[in-house]
Model the fold of this input.
Amino acid sequence: MKKAIGTQSAAALWVTGKAVFVVDEHLSSGDLLYKDLGLTIPEVVKEASKQNDANWKPLSTEKLAELNADHLFVVQGKGVNMDEMKKDPIW
Done:
């Protein structure tokens, strides 16, 4: 698997209304992405993971803009219009 993935990075995001959260690198799907699959951890995810013990860490729009991941796994919260959200240049 590592040969196929190489150095590609990924992040799991949860979008709820106007808030965006990123999963902790050591918990939940972060553990799967980084430990089990061997994907590279983006710096923004590493920084956010130091915040607290919650599985999902709040992510500001500034940090979202800095998130340089090859792949994003986005969990769409109830009532979130992904088409509208994608109109924002940050995405």
